[in-house]
Amino acid sequence: SRRHKLYREELNLTSPAAPLPLRPEASWLQFHLGISRDGLYPRSSPTINRLLRDMQDFTTISADYSQDEKALLGACDCSQIVKPSGVHLKLVLRFQDFGKAMFKPMRQKREEETPEDFFYFVDFQRHNAEIAAFHLDRILDFRRVPPTVGRLINVTKEILEVTKNEILQSVFFVSPASNVCFFAKCPYMCKTEYAVCGNPHLLEGSLSAFLPSLNLAPRLSIPNPWIRSYSFDGKEEWEVNPLYCNTVREIYPYSNGNRLLNIVDMAIFDFLIGNMDRHHYEMFTKFGDDGFLLHLDNARGFGRHSHDETSILAPLSQCCVMKRTTLLRLQLLAEPEYRLSDVMRESLLQDRLAPVLTEPHLLALDRRLQLILKAVKKCIDTYGEAKVVANDTTQLEAPASDRVKLST
Question: Does this UniProt record's set of keywords contain Kinase (predicted)?
Answer without folding.
Answer: yes
